[in-house]
Specification:
Elements: H1 2-53, H2 55-63, H3 72-83, E1 97-99, H4 105-134, H5 140-145, H6 149-178, E2 188-190, H7 191-208, H8 211-220, H9 226-231, H10 233-247, H11 253-290
Parallel strand pairs: 1-2
Length: about 290
């Protein structure tokens, strides 16, 4: 009996030691994650300070750009309209007066918009820090397959930002500014509402363009398959066309294709990525069983 108690005590001490070791490892990981997040925060703060210093340029040329008829997108649309002889395609006026209704509204706008821009500019570095945190936990094969994660994720995000800012945001601003249910109602837009709309459309489009990266991760985990995405393609087509119809100023096919075509290509690229991951997993399983 005494011998059994001694054995149980020794096992209990061993288990306690393993538990303490696991807890220390967990807190070590938290500490390491904190370091990466602090470095990312410092970079974002520096980007925000730069945006705050050059805020005149940021506000006049970037934030207010989609509300000006001289914006690049509207000028290109006028040229395309002239080429195809479509007068309704050219946008020469953005109605709606932008106002401020709060005492600290403009100061808050400057802080929020500088911070939002700083975050957007700091995303590539944030992804780099995330990769540095995750990389040590990956196997050699997983590291090899994930090579270029930061580059491709940053590239897709920047392409998405550009598409959102130069295509989705100006078309949405034009559509919503011209939309009216009665001539007696005049569109008077607060600066907070305008900025939040432009920022949301731009950043959300940037996030949507990360779809291939998300599909890559889900395919690695076995959650997403190319067969499933092909099966649901018709639903994706309907959703993309609905989004394109909402944000485009005119219901003609060329305008809708301008918005929807990149989204179609993005979905097909995601299917291709999922297919590559599936083939890689099948090849690895075949090599394992043959060895």
């Amino acid at each position: 009996m005494a011998k059994e108690r001694k054995t149980d005590l020794i096992e209990s001490i061993k288990n306690k030691g393993k538990s303490m070791e696991g807890e220390m490892s967990f807190f070590d990981h938290l500490s390491e994650l904190r370091v990466h997040l602090i470095r990312s925060s410092i970079v974002i703060i520096l980007m925000t300070i730069v945006c705050f210093i050059y805020y005149d340029f940021l506000f006049d040329n970037i934030i207010m750009g989609p509300h000006k008829p001289t914006f690049w997108t509207y000028r290109m649309m006028c040229k395309v309209g002239e080429y195809f002889n479509k007068s309704g395609f050219c946008i020469t006026n953005i109605p709606g007066k932008i106002i401020n209704t709060e005492m600290a509204g403009q100061f808050t706008l400057q802080i929020n918009s500088a911070l939002m821009t700083g975050i957007a500019l700091g995303v590539p570095y944030l992804l780099w820090e995330v990769w540095r945190f995750v990389k040590p936990a990956l196997k050699d094969s997983e590291r090899k397959s994930a090579t270029g994660f930061v580059f491709y994720a940053s590239l897709l995000f920047l392409i998405g930002l550009s598409f959102g800012y130069f295509i989705v945001a100006p078309l949405s601003v034009n559509f919503l500014s011209n939309y009216s249910i009665s001539p007696e109602i005049e569109n008077t837009i607060t600066i907070d509402s305008y900025f939040s709309s432009v920022a949301t459309l731009t950043l959300c489009t940037g996030a949507v363009f990360e779809l291939p990266i998300v599909i890559f991760i889900l395919s690695k985990l076995g959650i997403m398959t190319p067969a499933f995405m092909r099966e649901k393609r018709r639903f994706a087509v309907v959703i993309i066309l609905v989004i394109a119809a909402i944000v485009t100023p005119t219901p003609d096919i060329p305008t809708m294709l301008t918005v929807s075509l990149p989204l179609f290509l993005l979905y097909e690229l995601s299917i291709f990525v999922s297919l590559k991951v599936q083939k890689s997993k099948l090849k690895a399983e075949k090599a394992f069983y043959n060895s």
